[in-house]
Specification:
Layout: E1 2-5, H1 12-20, E2 37-46, H2 49-52, E3 62-64, E4 67-76, H3 91-97, E5 103-109, H4 129-148, H5 151-161, H6 165-173, H7 180-190, H8 201-215, E6 218-223, H9 230-237, E7 244-246, H10 249-260, E8 264-265, E9 274-275, H11 283-299, H12 304-315, E10 318-324, E11 342-345, H13 350-357, H14 359-363, E12 365-370, E13 376-377, E14 387-393
Parallel strand pairs: 1-4, 1-5, 5-6, 6-7, 10-14
Antiparallel strand pairs: 2-4, 3-4, 8-9, 10-11, 12-13, 12-14
Amino acid sequence: MIGIVGKPNVGKSTFFSAATMATAEIANYPFTTIKPNKGVGYVRSRCPHLDFNVQCQPRNSACENGVRLVPIELLDVAGLVPDACQGKGLGNQFLDDLRQADAFVHVIDASGATDCEGNAVIPGSHDPVEDLVFLEREIVQWIKGIMEKGFDKLARSAHLEGTKVEQVIHERLTGLGVTEVQVATAVRASAMPAKIIDWKEEDLFRLAQHIRQQSKPMIIALNKADVANPALIERLSKLEGYVTVPTCAETELALRRAVKAGLVSYVPGDQGFKVNDTSKLNPNQKKALDYMAQVMQRYGGTGVQKCLEKVAYEMLELIVVYPVEDEGRLTDHDGNVLPDAFLLKKGSTAKDLAYKVHTDLGDHFIRAINARTHRVVGHDHLLENEDVMTIVAKR
């Protein structure tokens, strides 16, 4: 699941609505989002029907001219303000909601028109870099706070019993979805003191930073790029240590609504769009679409889809796999051709796919068949991107 995060009033809910076409309350004041919104976005993948020369019949995703739109869960949470880890604003609720996320899209107001708490200010008067620093600090402080509760007692016990430090930290963070491998990698990267009883507060903070980087990677959406100073966008795009993408969430949302109304042809992630019938547009619509076309030409699209796909494919290292019941006809039990597309972590096995489809398939797994090669493989067979697989299980 990808968490859409940021301070209030930067366009988080607009980004979420654009990515999911879900109904999220959007307004120009802080804390519009109180309860987290869950929805389904999509990332693009080449549909296997092109290789097999068949007509696919998608069930859990759409296929647009050979581009499969693969579902991925999104979460839009309440805005974060400075000192949220101490309960300010809706901080405690925000941070607790983030437990569910595997990665973050941090939406910032690249136009500099909102202060640290999300209040409107003169465009360009607030430095968005401050938002990057404070949100990272709040999340790290939250992780550190979880680790250090009763830490002295645990550290003494681990030291006396010879328990691995990775195990001690992992047990504290299991509720965040952090793996022991990620903890071990973070411990090495943090250059922690050899003995856990010697760890100080600053050591825990440094460790929390690396744990966040390992377990919950983050991309920065430079939102409102269409009204931002180009020089500011360029500066933000070159920030060391950050992956940034200029985004225009309002444009993306308007385009998806225009598609729904039949006014334009557009597939999420396209660099432009096509007007279906100019005679059906009123002057205001023509003006708006001309403006959106200029914005997309400037940035090569709206950036919303690019953010999701960078997170999914590059940061989370997900692959797309297509399970079918009949490897010869590429169908499910109802005869649908290539019905489903699932995202799995790179390194996942055939048995992992079986569990993804249904628990019973995983529990009673016998073997799998690769529909491309017709090879029979075992439970530990590593899957590759765009694999089409049949799972054989005991009945």
